[in-house]
Amino acid sequence: MLGIGKVGWIDAERPSAGPYDAIVRPLAVAPCTSDVHTVWEGALGDRKNLILGHEAVGVIDEIGSEVKDFKPGDKVIVPAITPDWRSMAAQDGVPMHSNGMLGGWKFSNSKNGVFAEFFHVNDADMNLAHLPKGMPREQAVMLSDMATTGIQGAEMAKIKTGSTVAVIGIGPVGLMAVAGASILGAGRLFAVGSRKASVDLALEYGASEIINYRTGGLVEQILEKTDGKGVDSVIIAGGNENTISDAVKIAKPGGTVSNISYYGTGDILPIPRIAWGMGMSQKDIRGGLTNGGRLRMERMADLCIYGRIKPEKMATHIFEGFDKIEEALMLMKEKPRDLIKPVVLLDE
User: Fold this and answer.
1) Of 254, 287, 320, which one is at a domain's C-terminal end?
2) Going by fewer Cβ within 10 Å, which terminus of the chain is more open, N or C?
């Protein structure tokens, strides 16, 4: 990111490792809608010469003197969120906000990201996970953000066995939210989206019905299909700053709205007064950045190993070579109808 609305290549210094850190060379990376928000919406403010990217699989090139569980040459899954595990926030159960709001989100936010020949990972023993033998890179790179974020959306939604759930937005994060809701026991499971590639995969991942917001309001459609009752849980994984208002409207009294969407514009997120029961509806509105960290990545990997999720099916466009990163990023910005997620494979 050269500045708001501008991307390009720069020469940057090789990062150095502190005693608990690692320097990693990427083997696979994936551009994210968050990169698009950061650059073209200026969602994080202006950034100059900031290396983008926060989804990667890599090989360790260098370790700090206190790193115990990894060595140069180890292949690793790199989570998008790398908390400071020695922080008070981590002890308080919110490691993703270590040392400040969203402080665990470092790549392409507070420091250079993974679209580089080498990148820095803090707290390597706590943040890296060994790449399971035989796991394809295009599968593993989906775990760093898409899988963990989408599944956390389902976890925050307080899904009960057999309950009715709606997932708004079925890009890659939303698709993983559909998969997560299915794993957690959702009964009737609405997926809101219109792209055929995403719709087909949402049904494969466990959606029971598709709501096409292009053919009518999603609120009206879902309320009609539920006889005006609404749903027990709503997971927001797309849309705009008004989507949270729709989510509150379709949630039952006592229901839960779980937000994992990154709002890149606007100052206020509207909560509809009447739909929220004048503030007394017992509708729980929750939002969260995913945990990140080693244990989370290991558990995401187990979901793949034991056949619970198949995130590699979201990799609709696979590129090869470092010089293809920019093309993949622009594809994520333009979002053609057949795109779910681009992945760039780099030299092993």
Assistant:
1) 287
2) C
Q: For position 265, what pLDDT does the model report?
A: 82
Question: For residue range 221-266, what is the model confidence (pLDDT) as tens digits?
Answer: 999 999 999 999 999 999 999 999 999 999 999 999 999 999 888 8
Q: What is the pLDDT of residues 260-305, one digit of tens each?
A: 999 888 889 999 999 999 999 999 999 999 989 999 999 999 999 9
User: Do 264 and 320 share a domain, yes or no?
Assistant: no
Same-domain check for residues 217 and 338 = no
- Bridge-partner residues for 256, per DSSP? 233, 284
Number of structural domains the chain divides into = 2
Judgement on whether residues 163 and 97 belong to the same structural domain of the protein: no
Question: Cβ contacts of residue 267 below 8 Å, gap of 6+?
Answer: none
Amino acid at 156: M
Reduced to 3 states, what is the DSSP secondary structure of residue 164? coil
pLDDT, mean of residues 97-110: 95
Other residues' Cβ atoms within 10 Å of the Cβ of residue 281:
16
**Residues 134 and 247 reside in one and the same domain:** no
**Do residues 177 and 273 share a domain?**
yes
- Determine the Cα–Cα distance for residues 165 and 174; give it in Å rounded to an integer: 12
Sequence-distant (6+) residues with CB within 8 A of 192 are 166, 167, 168, 169, 170, 210, 211, 213, 218
| Closest C-alpha to 138, from 348, 343, 346, 278 | 343
Q: Which residue segment(s) compose the domain that 134 sits in? A: 22-141+310-345
Contact of 15 with 23, CB cutoff 8 Å:
yes
Q: Does 271 lie in the same domain as 155?
A: yes
pLDDT at residue 44, as a whole number = 87
Beta strands per DSSP E along the chain: 22-29, 56-63, 75-78, 119-121, 129-130, 165-168, 189-192, 209-211, 231-236, 251-259, 284-287, 315-320, 341-345
Q: Does residue 30 sit in the same domain as residue 127?
A: yes
Query: Considering the entire predicted model, what is its pTM?
Result: 0.96
Residue whose C-alpha is closest to residue 292's, from 120, 99, 90: 90
Six-digit token string for 54: 């926060």
